[in-house]
Amino acid sequence: MLKSKFDILTTGIHEVLPKEEFKKKLDSGKPLKIKFGMDPTAPDLHLGHAVVLSKLKTFQEFGHEIILIIGDFTARIGDPTGKSKTRPSLTEEEINENAKTYFNQVGRILDLSKTKIRYNSEWFDKFTSRDFLKLCAKVTLSKIVERDDFQKRIAAKQPVGFHELLYPLIQGYDSVVLHSDVELGGTDQTFNLLMGRFLQEQYGQTPQAIITLPLLPGLDGVHKMSKSLGNYIALVEPANDAFGKLMSISDELMWTYYELLLGKTKSEINSMKDNVEAGIAHPMDLKKEMAEQIIARFWSSQEAKKAKTVFEELFQKKDFANAQEIKYGPEYSQPINIVDLIKKIGAAPTSSEARRLIEAGAVTIDGNKIKDFKTQISIKTGMQIRVGKHKFYKVI
Asked: What domains can you pick out in the chain, each with its CATH number?
């Protein structure tokens, strides 16, 4: 039985508000303006972002207009969503640098030639104090502080910056400028998305429908995928590393990744679970299929096949043939501190992270665990270094 466009577009989502209005918009047959906002607060996108971007791709394939809002103005404020304290704002230089990296990453999923990109500084940099007062007059303080993030901080007697109270209005006003028909976002953005709908009504426009998508759990299976928590897979990281990280998730979390990143239906997932229970399928094999399909979708099929081979050789056969190579040179002629070595080969970004890995027993050299961060290492060709579960190196 063929699925309707409505069924396809609402597969894997959390909620549509209001559902009947969204159906009516779809049934009109007109290309809809689909809005999605992104604050350039960090240079890399991760698989959590891919959940929403994949849904946008489906809208795009059905002929609807995708409008990406780069919140360069908004990022100067700092979105308080999900934060227990005020998030520092970014400089214009940081914002511009981060925004530049987004396009190639978004292009892995969306057709950029059919995607409209707007910066909300286009209209907000022209806003006068009078314009801001008019915007603020559309909303009451009681409505703003209904937001769960603000309520928690107020109850805990934590500060809430007045500039943060403006954030939902500013994001919502983007919808007014664009005359958007539908806006997508994670479940943590529900308040902001509804504010866009509310403001469109205040300005005499047909209000947008909103679609919220589940937040992708991070590798820890507890918190949402986030760079700040270190439980993420960046779209720009090597496919081999991404494959290894995907294989590290729990068997239970695997089903969520199948649903949110690969679009598997509940019935398809239940069928796989039944096969596992019946002994027809093994969780390890299903996880490898999941990882290969995700890498093929967001990297390439060629990289997916290679990453699977590398994983099987490194992790299952314990074969270092495909480990990342470190060329022996003059800089290794003298013993080097283990912390400095881990940083030098790129296995950890900072000394503190390197020390944490060492103290956790996650660093081995030629099969021997290194637990003292003061250890001096004499580098030699043929040496095999493993950092964590996913990073293998050999000296040549």
From this structure: 5-213 (3.40.50.620), 239-319 (no CATH), 324-395 (3.10.290.10)
Query: How confident is the model at residue 82, as a pLDDT?
Result: 47
Residue 195 DSSP class: H
Rounded alpha-carbon distances, angstroms, from residue 99 to 38, 64, 104, 115, 356: 9, 24, 10, 15, 31
Model confidence, pTM: 0.74
Please choose, from the candidates 167, 163, 192, the residue with its C-alpha nearest in 3D space to the C-alpha of residue 35.
192
Cα–Cα distances (Å) from 253 to 85, 214, 226, 335, 369, in that order, read 29, 14, 16, 42, 29
Residue 186 burial (10 A CB sphere; 0-12, 13-18, 19+): buried
Helix (H) / strand (E) element for 255: namely helix 251-262
**Short-list 136, 164, 163, CA closest to 150:** 164
Q: Residues 6 or more apart from 299 whose CB is under 8 A from it?
A: 108, 239, 242, 307
137: which 2 tokens? 């007059």
Nearest to 240 by CA among 328, 285, 302: 302
Tokens standing for residue 88: 């520092």
Instruction: Report the length, in residues, of the chain.
Output: 396
Task: Determine the Cα angle at 262 with ends 234 and 387, to 5°.
Answer: 35
The residues that bridge with 303 in the sheet, in sequence order, are none
Closest of 40, 64, 35, 65 to residue 52, by C-alpha = 35
Q: How many CA within 13 A on the CB side of residue 39?
A: 19
* Cα-to-chain-centroid distance, residue 362: 26
Tokens 């579960």: give the residue: 389
* Residue 339 burial (CB count, 10 A): 22
Taking the C-alpha atoms of residue 295 and residue 298, their distance in angstroms, rounded to an integer, is 5
Q: How far apart are the first and last CA of the chain?
A: 57
Which residue from 3, 8, 36 is spatially nearest to 208, judged by alpha carbons? 36
Answer for the pair 246, 291: CB distance below 8 angstroms, yes or no: yes
**Residue 6: enclosing H or E segment and its boundaries?**
helix 5-9
For 23-69, how does the pLDDT look when each residue is reduced to its tens digit (9 = 90+)? 999 999 999 999 999 877 667 789 999 999 999 999 999 999 999 99
235 and 105 in contact (C-beta within 8 Å)?
yes
Taking every pair of C-alpha atoms in the chain, what is the biggest distance, in angstroms?
Answer: 73
